[in-house]
Amino acid sequence: MKAPLDGIRVLELGSLIAGPFCAKTLGDFGAEVIKIEPPGEGDALRKWRRMRNGTSLWWHVQSRNKKSVTCDLRRPEGQEVVRRLARRSQIVIENFRPGALEKWHLGWDALSRDNPKLVLVRISGYGQTGPYRERPGFAAIAEGVGGMRYITGFPDRPPARSNLSLGDTIAALHGVIGALLALHHVKSGGAGQVIDVALYESVFNCMESLLPEFDAHGYVRERTGSALPGIAPSNLYPCSDGSYVLIAGNVDSLYRRLMAAIGRVDLRDDPALARNDGRAAQMERIDAAIAAWTSQKTQPEVLAAMEQAEVPAGRIYSAADIAADPHYAVRRMIETITANDGEPLKVPGVVPKLSATPGAIRSQAPKLGEHTAEVLTEIGYSDADIANLKQANVI
């Protein structure tokens, strides 16, 4: 079956998370992704978090559907390799600090001169312009500057993080959107262009009404734990067996069904609570009523009652819960691959789900430099050229 990005070549520069996640997403849908890695050590992600047989388990997810080519971008010979590859690519993705590509003679002017249809995705902490452009920026910093950290956690504790690099992932997805928009423009007869993605701006783009609430009312949204002020009811509620259940009855019709299910017809029929703005003003009263009901029932009993009432509810899944869940399995959100160490490994499936041209895991994450000779031969390097580059530690 033809994939939607068949025939698209992506040249991935950079390392770790944002740029590689962007390229991984394109690779899942058929793009040929050539990943450039430093000779000898490769992408630092190969050694991040938990390992198996000397390689990060994360690597097997982040680098699937890619080819690994080693190349020293600091050397003129390595820069020539990248220029040749960029001439034959539709998309280049990089996540170095602004100015790095220019220092290596690989900036937009140099690459687009030889390939005017090229789409260059540049992901950085603060973007390619502005007073902060040269500051180093990782996901943790972007989540703080973008507003996410300030509102995450409980009010009596310091701001928390989600134990994920959300800033990187959100920026990567904005990079995917930008790349596809620019690619559509090219296919419609337009020229190539630069996609300038800043981590902090990608986070800020997800901050909903945070800014207009401040502008209109001087209201600064604060940390609220598991509650969602202004949208009621939507919270985490205790059960009699020591567990918790998430219940979201914040649509008017859902609220009425929820109150009927917990036996609080008085709250269901209270005119002051008929609309969300009225409920938001009495969140503590409503949450207390729901908690009083859930605390008398086990988690399965609460979930069964909510399902019968057609009210959104769920429990908090751990990795073990995800691995055992039948819905994940039916939706092919858990796939078993044979990793490049020869052992089986469960990894996340491909999203989004396309009905006619679905994505797929076509190849395992590569070993360092696994495709160097193959790719360089394809762009005109002879066996002798490749041998000389190896001897000079360029590749």
Would you give an account of this structure?
With 395 residues, this protein is α/β, with parallel strands linked by helices. It has 2 domains: 9-206 and 329-391, Crotonobetainyl-coa:carnitine coa-transferase, domain 1 (Rossmann fold), CATH 3.40.50; 234-238 and 244-314, formyl-coa transferase, domain 3, CATH 3.30.1540. 38% of the residues lie in helices and 14% in strands. The chain contains 18 helices and 13 strands. It has a 6-stranded parallel sheet with strand order 5-2-1-6-7-8, sandwiched between helices. Strand 3 (51-52) and strand 4 form a beta hairpin. The longest helix is centred in the middle third of the chain and has 22 residues, at 166-187. The protein is elongated. The protein starts with 8 loop residues before the first strand and ends with a helix. The mean pLDDT is 97.
CATH topology of the largest domain: Rossmann fold
Number of H/I helices: 18
Number of domains: 2
Shape: elongated
Distance between the termini: 35 Å
Query: CATH homologous superfamily of the largest domain, by name?
Result: Crotonobetainyl-coa:carnitine coa-transferase, domain 1
Strand share of the residues?
5-15%
**Helix share bin:** 25-40%
Attribute tags:
single chain, 395 residues, alpha/beta, Rossmann fold, formyl-coa transferase, domain 3, 2 domains, six-stranded parallel sheet, three-stranded antiparallel sheet, 18 helices, 13 strands, elongated
Quick recap of the structure?
The protein folds into 2 domains: 9-206 and 329-391, Rossmann fold; 234-238 and 244-314, formyl-coa transferase, domain 3 (2-Layer Sandwich).
